[in-house]
Amino acid sequence: MTAFIEATSPHVMNTYGRVPIALSHGQGCHVWDVNEKLYLDALAGIAVNTLGHNHPKLVSALQEQLTQLIHTSNYYHVPHQETLAAKLVALTGMSNVFFCNSGLEANEAALKMARKYGHDKGIERAEVVVYEKAFHGRSIATLSATGNPKIQAGFAPLVEGFIRVPKDDIEALKKATEGNPNITAVFLETIQGEGGLHPMRLEYLQQVRQLCDERGWLLMIDEVQTGVGRTGKWFAHQWAGIVPDVMTLAKGLGSGVPVGALVAGPKAAHVLQPGNHGSTFGGNPLAMRACVETLSIIEEEGLLDNAAKVGAYLKNSLQQALGHVEGVTDVRGMGLMIGVELAKPCGALVGVAADSGLLISVTADSVIRLVPPLILTEAEADSIVALLTPLVKAFLAA
Ligand SMILES: *Cc1c(COP(=O)(O)O)cnc(C)c1O
């Protein structure tokens, strides 16, 4: 028997509230820790491991890529960038893609674009509409766009040029922007992920699209968490039948390999010109190969349908198991992006669930977030419900 290995990080900077386990390897929707304890992974690295762990096709493509090229720089053409960009263009009906390495980087590019778009029209101090409870990242610009005072605390002065509005209220948006000639963009999440799994109404998204068209604003949608099949369509805005001018992607795009992308439609595609923006690592061959492979495996394995079908099944089962329990205030979500909201803060459940062999997260203090790999089966969904239900009941009764 192996000795119990304690999970500690004395030399890593203490910026996370970590669960005291260390993971060692995984297979499909399961992972094992360094002491060989098994977990069902309903978090997927925060909506990142689209294909689960150790997907044979992804692994062999990456192994092959490692022997060819890992990195070259954007001094040269990178053929895998063109392959992935063409695929993203085909899936969105948009036109051009900029590659970077994370969600906040994609959003940073979007915010620069909103300013340059204004500048090109003679607007010197561009303003961008953002939302209460929004999350766009932790750089200075993206935390300024984020609608969470806890994330902003301690980092003043924040970046100027944001106007904050409540979601789902087109009149509030019109009122907040009335007569303001400096607005250049509206920036939103179709489902606010970190903010507590709050979807925007599809009708509202359509209204915002129309308003942006009327006013000449860019509609910029942060699909860093909702994109790449998570909700059962390629991109969550597609449920509303709209096409944004700018869409940002990251988390699930490379199935675990770090990557970010900004996809732009014709109104935005030519705003950034040589010298305006760049990234050393962005679009490197290894990350691009991971993304190309991830998208083609999603297609081959029908994972959009699986996310829709197993997601509906999981949400339904959770509603049946927990919907009527005193202290459970809501079970909501789309596809495999599901939130169970409790009437009290429940961050402690993350560690309790890990003890029981289930990986989850809690967001916005009181919302249990389930964002498992898109390969989840109904049997695995049953296991999530079987593991989670008694924990939630015991937690609420305590
Ligand atoms: C996670 C997330 C980000 C930030 O992504 P990072 O890769 O952590 O920088 C931005 N927007 C949304 C909606 C996210 O969920």
UniProtKB/TrEMBL annotation:
Subcellular location: Cytoplasm
Stretch forming the signal peptide: none
Reaction(s) catalysed by this chain's protein: N(2)-acetyl-L-ornithine + 2-oxoglutarate = N-acetyl-L-glutamate 5-semialdehyde + L-glutamate
Binding site for pyridoxal 5'-phosphate: F135, D222, E223, V224, Q225, T280
Chain residues that bind N(2)-acetyl-L-ornithine: R138, S279
The keyword Transferase is assigned to this record: yes
Gene3D superfamilies with a match to the protein in the record: Aspartate Aminotransferase, domain 1, Type I PLP-dependent aspartate aminotransferase-like (Major domain)
GO CC annotation, single: cytoplasm
GO biological process: L-arginine biosynthetic process
Family matches, as InterPro entries: AcOrn/SuccOrn_fam (IPR004636), Aminotrans_3 (IPR005814), Aminotrans_3_PPA_site (IPR049704), Class-III_PLP-dep_AT (IPR050103), PyrdxlP-dep_Trfase (IPR015424), PyrdxlP-dep_Trfase_major (IPR015421), PyrdxlP-dep_Trfase_small (IPR015422)
Any Pfam family: Aminotran_3
Record-given protein name: Acetylornithine aminotransferase
